[in-house]
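Run log // design_07
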């Protein structure tokens, strides 16, 4: 057996006496195997939950193998398909290869040759995916950022660096940060930079669903499992098979659903609501929250074991107020986009508008900036947006602090105190943002006479 252990293979043949031996052979080689009695039944299974490879006969009722192959290519252009045809029907084999078949096997089937063909097809798929992943990595390296994300600040460069390193793995990622910082965009960028790029990216907003609906949404349900369940419905985990599932606001998941989610992360299996059949999925999970999950763990609102399963790799999205000139870069990006969408000749910002953008604290982060620029573009009557066009009041908060610029000590003090304010007084988070040690922050606070309020300097034994 090759490295394709546990790959899922769908065998399609209307003759059960021919199909069953193929299923048994592939199972003995370590594959997970499912059978379908004709092309239509196979297509239904592929659309519901795509396998890793399809082996199909050509001549079948309802839908033949060539039509099945054509339909599969409309939805999954990289799904390998091996067709089985008679040795005399060379024309059909050529037609199948032109339609996108990975390989063909002649009847009577040489079982050893079939295993080799399946292994080879999956290896070719893996090579293609790896080549695509390498191409994306190179493009991202030259671009400096990630697709869908804007920003050149030091804080965002740290985000990019971690995201690029983790993208090619299957490790679970936990993205934290305030609302509106772009956690969903980062999750999608990680998916697009991964070998799973061509597979589904499925998103679930956990806070938007009632507890009674969330379990069915995630894991699906069987027909008749509850009132209104008139048919079987695959859940988001099944829909994301082979790809990425993004759980937004994961901290809002209720306790009972947390238990089932933990099992999926541990065993990669689950049952639909009202069902008993174990379903195995290959899903890369990315979760996001604006809550302090560790505090929720301490207070019993979130399972500790689930927290550590989710928090394999942690990425914190910085608030917009700590991203410096990224504010103007993002504002320009949104301006050009909304000017094009609204057919307006708006080409930039006045200096007063830029000053107002930079001095605002942006409690709603990037989402609030996007909304503000869209409104300004729509209502602006001049080629450049002025400060009066921006729908907010910005008053710099510099009470007790000199505006930085005189000495390095004053700049350092300003940066430390403003960062501590932004992160709610957490010296560890401030240290991470500023790329300095917690010990340095504690010493500086002692020098500023703020140790009693913020903390105390470490002793020599710390």
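design_07 sequence
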């Amino acid at each position: 057996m090759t490295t394709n252990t546990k790959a899922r293979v769908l065998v399609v043949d209307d003759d059960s006496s021919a199909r069953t031996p193929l299923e048994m052979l592939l199972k003995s080689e370590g594959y997970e195997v499912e059978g379908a009695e004709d092309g239509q039944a196979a297509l239904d299974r592929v659309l519901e939950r795509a396998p890793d490879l399809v082996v199909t006969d050509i001549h079948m009722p309802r839908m033949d193998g060539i039509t099945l192959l054509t339909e599969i290519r409309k939805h999954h252009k990289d799904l390998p398909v091996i067709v089985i045809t008679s040795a005399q029907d060379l024309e059909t084999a050529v037609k199948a290869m032109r339609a996108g078949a990975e390989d063909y096997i002649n009847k009577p089937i040489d079982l050893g040759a079939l295993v080799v063909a399946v292994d080879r097809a999956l290896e070719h798929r893996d090579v293609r995916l790896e080549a695509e992943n390498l191409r994306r990595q190179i493009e991202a390296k030259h671009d400096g950022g990630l697709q869908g994300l804007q920003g050149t600040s030091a804080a965002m460069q740290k985000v990019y660096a971690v995201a690029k390193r983790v993208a090619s793995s299957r490790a679970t990622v936990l993205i934290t940060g305030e609302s509106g910082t772009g956690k969903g965009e980062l999750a999608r960028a990680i998916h697009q930079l991964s070998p799973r790029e061509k597979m589904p990216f499925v998103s679930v907003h956990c806070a938007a669903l009632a507890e009674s609906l969330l379990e069915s949404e995630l894991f699906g349900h069987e027909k008749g499992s509850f009132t209104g369940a008139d048919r079987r419905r695959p859940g988001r985990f099944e829909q994301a098979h082979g790809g990425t599932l993004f759980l937004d606001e994961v901290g809002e998941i209720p306790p009972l659903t947390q238990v089932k989610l933990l099992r999926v992360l541990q065993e990669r299996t689950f049952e639909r609501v009202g069902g008993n059949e174990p379903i195995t999925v290959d899903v890369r999970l990315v979760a996001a929250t604006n809550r302090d999950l560790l505090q929720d763990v301490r207070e019993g609102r979130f399972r500790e074991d689930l927290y550590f399963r989710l928090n394999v790799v942690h990425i914190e999205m910085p608030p917009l107020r700590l991203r410096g000139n990224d504010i103007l870069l993002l504002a320009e990006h949104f301006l050009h986009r909304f000017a094009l969408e609204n057919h307006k000749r708006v080409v930039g910002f006045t200096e007063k508008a830029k000053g107002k953008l930079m001095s605002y604290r942006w409690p709603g982060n990037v989402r609030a900036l996007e909304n503000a620029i869209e409104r300004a573009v729509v209502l602006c009557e001049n080629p450049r947006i002025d400060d009066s066009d921006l729908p907010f009041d910005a008053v710099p908060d510099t009470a007790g602090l000199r505006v930085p610029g005189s000495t390095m000590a004053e700049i350092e003090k300003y940066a430390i105190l403003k960062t501590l304010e932004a992160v709610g007084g957490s010296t560890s988070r401030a240290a991470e943002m500023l790329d300095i040690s917690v010990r340095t922050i504690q010493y500086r606070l002692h020098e500023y006479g703020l140790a009693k309020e913020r903390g105390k300097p470490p002793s020599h034994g710390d």
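The longest strand covers residues 81-86.
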